[in-house]
Amino acid sequence: MSSLLIRNATAILTGLKGGEARHRGPDIRLRDGRIAAMGALAPEPGEAQLDATDCVIYPAWVNTHHHLFQSLLKGDPRGLDATLGPWLQATPWRLRPHMDEAMFRLAARIGLVELALSGCGTVADHNYHYWPGMPYDGSAVLFEEAQALGLRFVLCRGGGTLSRVALADLPPSLQPEPLDTYLADVERLASRWHDPAPDAMHRVVVAPTTPPHAMRPDELRETAAFARARGLRLHSHLSETVAYQDTVHDLHRMKPVQFCQSVDWLGPDVWFAHLVKLDPDEIALLGATGTGIAHCPQSNGRLGSGIAPVRQLEAAGAAVSIGVDGAASNEAADMLSETHAAWLLQRARAGDAAVARYRGGQGEAQAAAAATVEDVVRWGTAGGAQVLGLDAVGTLQPGQAADLAIYRLDDDPRYFGLHDPAIGPVASGGAAHLHALLVAGQPVVSQGRLPGIDLRDLGQQARREVRRLLASVG
Ligand SMILES: [Zn+2]
């Protein structure tokens, strides 16, 4: 029986709500991959110990939306100042056809390392890098890379049967798949990788890339039924921009959320990335059905899409989680930057809507209550576990999986002078000073390092592969 006592933490945020959001600790005992006890604990004979003096402990982050292959597509000048549509054409659609297996694997590794070093223990990747006759198994590459680092991994199997461009104009690697091919691959992946356990290390999710563009309505309905018959969750992009609203209106004379309802794509087993542009009736419908959001504030900011109404969604009953989105529209795809942005932007959104009292408004009162650090930590941990259905993950309490991020506050002036150390990693922003990341009780990051990963070497490989990619594009 392996037991580890984490001792003397300065503060602990649990991922829970209200009065349970903080635990006095200062110690946490882990046993056999679970949290065995929290409180003032004495070491047991022969027990391993980890000193957390001057550290704060959060649940390991749960990232619910990513495109790991984009980790080699950061800061592309052609797409940097573009909005969503032109950016898709300039960067992912232009460069993705030229990525080979070696580039794909390296991109996945870079993204996963970046996440782990921010304290992220669970990654849901929305991978849509599939095409008919693809010469390698990209899904297996993603699972293997996550497994090598010791991270929990949820593959959201993207792709679709439709193309936004005439098929004759598409390179082979951007060609859509027939529905039976798509579903057969989901079946294959689920039988190999999907574990329904509440603390699963591997899951598979059915995730056509974006509902109105990826499949016909009857195919979306069939896909939802297929997923539900196998206990698989559903994920996609939705309502990222006003252009999205125009598309669904033009095609179906509906709002995007109503369209999803019409094809059985709402419910507690569904979560959507973005949900930036929503009408009040759409917020109410998402809430009433318990549908989830992967809030991606940095990507939404970078692409000039807007700021999602996260507090309104949560108040309506929707499940809120945080995703970093692909690194090609978010040059820092890590969970600490993302949650720092979520904290600031929800407050900025509320402030932006504030109206002076003499004009009939309520002054600044709303903005002050918009989002606390505890809210953001809850969204990024327990909220993520909720949308992924990983009920044993995302909170720090006895019996839960031992997934913990332990941050140092003693070696960076940005934390010096903090009256409330618990909020430091999120509120003070900047790079994580990760002392340790544990997933299922196993060390993923120790003393700020990933065993077996040489960051300088990884950076050299990235520069080499970016040069090779651009040479191939010509
Ligand atoms: Zn995305």
Automatic annotation (TrEMBL):
- Can you name one GO molecular function term for this protein? hydrolase activity, acting on carbon-nitrogen (but not peptide) bonds
> The organism sits in which domain of life?
Bacteria
Return the Pfam families for the record: Amidohydro_1
**Record has Transmembrane as a keyword:** no
Name the keywords, alphabetized. Answer: Hydrolase
Any keyword 4Fe-4S? no
Read off the InterPro entries from this record.
Amidohydro-rel, Metal-dep_hydrolase_composite, Metal_Hydrolase, MTA/SAH_deaminase
Please report the stretch or stretches of sequence annotated as the Amidohydrolase-related domain.
56-418
Where would one find coiled-coil regions in this protein?
none
Q: Which family does the UniProt entry place this protein in?
A: Belongs to the metallo-dependent hydrolases superfamily. ATZ/TRZ family.
Q: What is this protein called?
A: Amidohydrolase family protein
Q: Which organism is it from?
A: Ramlibacter pinisoli
